[in-house]
Fold this sequence. Notes:
It is built from 15 helices and 16 strands. The protein has helices spanning 61-66, 76-88, 115-130, 151-159, 181-187, 190-193, 197-208, 215-227, 240-249, 260-268, 277-282, 292-297, 312-322, 328-333, 337-342, and strands spanning 2-10, 15-24, 27-32, 41-44, 49-52, 54-59, 92-101, 136-144, 165-169, 232-235, 253-255, 272-276, 303-305, 360-365, 371-378, 381-385. Strands 1, 2, 3, 4, 5, 14, 15 and 16 form an eight-stranded mixed β-sheet that branches. Strands 6-7-8-9-10-11-12-13 form an eight-stranded parallel β-sheet.
Amino acid sequence: MKIFTNANIVTPDEILENHCLAVENGRIAKIGRDISTEGAEVIDCHGGYLMPGIIDIHSDMIENLLQPRSTAMMSFQLGLDEAEKQLCACGITTIYHSVSMYKEGTWDSREIRSAKSVKKLSELIKKKKTGSHLIHNKYHLRYELDNIKCYDNVLELMDNGNVDLLSIMDHRPGQGQYKDLSIYRRHLPNQGRDLSDEEFAQLVEREQTKPMIEGEKLTDLVKKAKSLDIPVSSHDDDSSECIQRDIKLGVDISEFPITLEVAKEAKSAGIAALLGAPNILLGGSHSGNLSAEVAVKEGCGDILCSDYYPQALLRAVFYLANKGVLSLPQAVKLVSLNPAKAVKISNETGSLEVGKTADMLIIEKDMEGQPALKGVYVDGVAAMTMNYSEVQK
């Protein structure tokens, strides 16, 4: 048995000051002010916070680890192993690796986003779940709905148990993330930015009128996911019509709603609204869309994810708490219990409660009030510890 002592334990509703937490067989066995340490391994938290490990359900950081250059495809096993270490150092104990499956020939397609690469990575992640791992790895399949050719590949991956979360995406210009065409143009690769106004208008028309997975095929896709207990998210909802479609389909999560009104409608419909932690730290969306901080203040931001920058999650939690936007327990829920509920794993993890998996972080605040991560525990085992030192004068 392990006993974590001298801890300020962050629960979903409060901070239990100067409490202890006991771990046995990888699970939380007891929480109390005084727990006998006789015969146990003692971990002194030195008055720091003991909080649940971060659950990141949308992160595509692994794409650049696997394909750092257009002509450099690294070993997938190497990339996955290295991703674990980087994510663990950010306090992430459960990761949903979010690799997109794009149609070949589109401007944002890369080899890592091909059906072949997606299958290869998802199989490695599936294998890692029951093998040697540092943190809990899961696979989030982001499926671009113009990729009609790969529809059956998605069904196969779900049937084979390779998919833990399915996202349906539509990155056509003039709607969603790219409702503002000037933002779309700025996000194009260099050759796209060099188009004349006439050529750009032709590109937009071509993209807006291309065939898409919709209607019955889209309904069948989501039905298949739901029949396999795979949560489903919708990407970049920009209107009431999108939310009404989500309700009809049975979507669980609205990823990056474009406006506050859409986020509020999603919340009212019982659909969790997911926002980016980098958005919090940057003071707004890098695409000019909804401010995550505004959504949280308005009570319609349920989940924070790392999106493309895992280092932002822990800092965003303490930013919101230090600024008084939320209490620390409320801010922690954005990266722990709320995502766990949305992807249906909250019976196992997401909060420090007796019976749940002992995925935990020891956090101290530095002199500026920023979080200093001192320890990461996965299934009660020390996955990573950090010992900060200061120059002695």
